Amino acid sequence: MKILRIGTRESQLAVWQATLVQTLLKNAGVSSELVFIKSEGDIDTVTPLYELGVQGVFTKTLDAALLNDRVDIAVHSMKDVPTQLAKGIRQASVLKRASYKDIFVYKDPADLERLGYANGKWSMMNSASPTNSALTSDDLPFTIGTSSIRRIAQWLNRYPGHRIENLRGNVNTRLRKVAESNWNGAVFAAAGVERIELRPQNSVDLDWMLPAPAQGAIMVVCREDDSFSFEACQPFNDEATALCAKIERDFLRTLMGGCSTPISALATTSNGSVTFKGNIISPDGKQKVEIEKACATSDAGTLGILAANELLSEPSGAKIVQDIRNAKK
Predict the structure, then answer these.
(1) Is 138 a catalytic residue?
(2) pLDDT at residue 60, rounded to an integer
(3) CA 154, CA 13: separation in Å to the nearest integer?
(4) Please, are residues 4 and 232 in contact by the beta-carbon 8 Å criterion?
(5) pTM
(6) Which listed residue (63, 80, 226, 250) is catalytic?
(7) How far apart are CA 240 and CA 246, in angstroms?
């Protein structure tokens, strides 16, 4: 009987995700084993992700192992997967999505009020609001940790003048760095900390922050010519999650193509329809263009592309995209 080799990174979260896939395969009557692969993103935990200059920093080593027949399938956090899969690799399954939200892990509860959070809700805020103006003064420095250019852009758009510190490493390492720092807090993906039961009590959902495309979803990939592995993963493919993730990734690919960009997207399904929200923000947070669209689920196949092209048709949207492309040259 064939034993599927599951390629995974060595972090606690990656192993949790791969073990989940192993359990799902077992439930489908397929035997498997884990094969641990160290990625470039795990080796270099100092350089900000957006400075590494490559797509798929957490996935390309696993993809290489897959193409070299060292493993049969690879398990990825879908938000880390380039919108264009490597030649010879195909999507085998997308698991049901967990939380797509970002969370803020804070040090001092008083900081939440300074940020406009009270009674379990975030206030409507813009750069001209009194609270926000106070937060940008030299008398009240506010520092958060994150290495995500998307989170940086959205945070600075809401809180101009705040200081951003680079925060790299696996979930455990980043939580420790925050605890040992003199920062006010840091931003994490809810799914990442919740899956391995490490979400701190001193954290709140960032309901105002749009997620990365496909955040909270897990993707399993296999070789294009491996029908056995593909079929083995089909029983746990969640069609609604796969559709929403496709829409979000189409939006990203049409705008810029890469995953280290200040682009956010969220598609949700309800009662036979799909609602999509997306935005692109200049890396300094000063310019923002957003879009919202809805359609029937049966017509949603090209929704992400249509939304991106509509955003690009606006001069402000096209300018942000062009400025980012010029900065990358």
Answers:
(1) no
(2) 85
(3) 25
(4) yes
(5) 0.90
(6) 80
(7) 10
